[in-house]
Amino acid sequence: MSRARDFADLAGSANAGGITGRNLIINGAMKVAQRGTSATASSGYHTVDRFQLAVINMDNAAYTYVQSSVAPTGFSTSWRIDCTDEESALAADEYSTFTQAIEAQNLQQISNGSSAAKSLTLSFYVKSNKTGTWGLNLYKPDNTGRQITATYTISSADTWEYKTITFAGDTAGGGIADDNGAGMYVYWALAAGSDYTSSDSTSWSNYSNAGFLYGHNVNFFDSTANDWAVTGVQLEIGSGPATPFEHEDIGTTLAKCQRYYFKIVSTSTADAFAVGQNNTTLRADGSLGFPVTMRASPTAIETTGTATDYLINTSGNSYTCNAVPSFIRANSQTPYFRFPVASGLTTGYGAMLRAAVAGAYLAWSAEL
Amino acid sequence: MSYLVLDTEEGVVIYSDGARSCIGIDTEFQAWLRENKDSLPNDIQAKIDAGTLTIADAD
């Protein structure tokens, strides 16, 4: 192919959504995992940034999920879940999904809810021991909740397969607000009880539980032999074919992730989190600047849960905390937090708010 | 895991589960309130009874 052809294709890509920055998914290569690289038995955000697992109403299923180094050619990481206890009889109200929520103001260019609504093409690499028909859902919550579903087939067990699915644009439903809320959710189904599969939702329609995971025909949790892994996730404007996965530099991906979650972790016993001031003899308060303006003001601070992981340096002495650091307030650019000690601080003195061990951390979330 | 009232700062109540602390509108705290609304710790139930803490409906 000539260079002229290459440039023509690039121009076409720009018209469709950009030569770079065309992936509406953040961290699609599963490279950033600020919270940790493994988790067990809890729904929510726990491993790779921006993606969350939901396991709803299941009473027996147990599982672990990890940022895995097993990945297809050209990738170094994936997200993988392993079933460790069976949910062999799936009840009607039980389901499980892997999800990313996309911020609404990042979706204005898809013209959702108008006659100019654009198609979206989802592509990803997937691997599982379990062949069969798996479900996907795009859900738009703003104004009238709308959804569209599709399926993909895993044909070969334990083999990375590349999937690409195009969803038509939605011309109805009132569109997506231009704000910092959730504009669209992308769901990969892992299991779906009959309450969620009975209504054909393969065209855009108003949300109903019955259509949520239409077509999904696999119970991932029916055997402890089961695993499912995904990476290279890309959602882009256009009716396909999907363009190759847009590999970003790690700094760009990390900064995108830090809009939604920021974790500062000590790598030694001497790392500082922030400077502060002794407000009383029992506490020092501190602040820092988030590296990226967060999506919204965090409402909590996360710690290790061990008070002695934290200490204060002030007036030439070290004071180990007697309780973990606590939230005071935060806005989207800076948090304000407290390090408590049993006694001994000199009010008004400056203080270094520090880790006492490697692996101590402070974290703030503004996730969708 | 259970939350308790940790502190009050400038009229804002801080809640803690021992590892994370938060204000009353925190999404994770609110989910915990909904799950445990029939058996909340006394100090948190007192905030609800006083009207200074509200359990929001799930999205």
Q: Notable features of this structure?
A:
heterodimer; A: 368 residues; mainly beta; Jelly Rolls; 2 domains; seven-stranded antiparallel β-sheet; six-stranded antiparallel β-sheet; 39% strand; B: 59 residues; alpha+beta; three-stranded antiparallel β-sheet; 2 helices; 3 strands; 29% helix; globular
Structure overview:
The complex is a heterodimer of chains A (368) and B (59). By secondary structure, chain A is mainly β. Chain A has two helices and 22 strands. A seven-stranded antiparallel β-sheet of chain A has the order 18-17-21-14-15-20-19, with no helix packed on it. In chain A, strands 1-3-4-12-6-9 form a six-stranded antiparallel β-sheet, with no helix packed on it. Chain A starts with a helix and ends with a strand. Chain B is 29% helix and 24% strand. The model of chain B has no long low-confidence stretch (mean pLDDT 93). The longest helix of chain B is centred in the middle third of the chain and has 9 residues, at 27-35. The interface between A and B is medium-sized, with 13 and 17 residues. Strand 16 of chain A pairs antiparallel with strand 3 of chain B, so a sheet runs across the interface.
Q: Name the helix and strand elements of chain B from N-terminus to C-terminus, one letter apiece.
A: EEEHH
- CATH fold label of the largest domain in chain A: Jelly Rolls
| Secondary-structure-derived class of chain B | alpha+beta
Give the CA-CA distance, first to last residue of chain A. 43 Å
What is the C-alpha radius of gyration of chain A, as a whole number of Å?
A: 23 Å
- The strand line-up of the biggest sheet of chain B is 1-2-3
Mean of the pLDDT scores of chain A?
A: 95
Largest interface by Cβ-Cβ < 8 Å: A-B, 13 and 17 residues
- Report strand % of chain A: 35-45%
Q: Which residue ranges of chain B are poorly predicted, with pLDDT under 50 across at least 5 consecutive positions? A: none
CATH superfamily of the largest domain in chain A: Galactose-binding domain-like
Largest pleated sheet of chain B: 3 strands, antiparallel
Quote the distance from N terminus to C terminus of chain B.
23 Å
CATH architecture annotation name of the largest domain in chain A: Sandwich
**Helix amount of chain A:** under 10%
Number of domains of chain A: 2
Please report the total strand number of chain B as a whole number: 3
- Name the structural class of chain A: mainly beta
Mean pLDDT across every amino acid position of chain B: 93
The dominant shape of chain B is globular
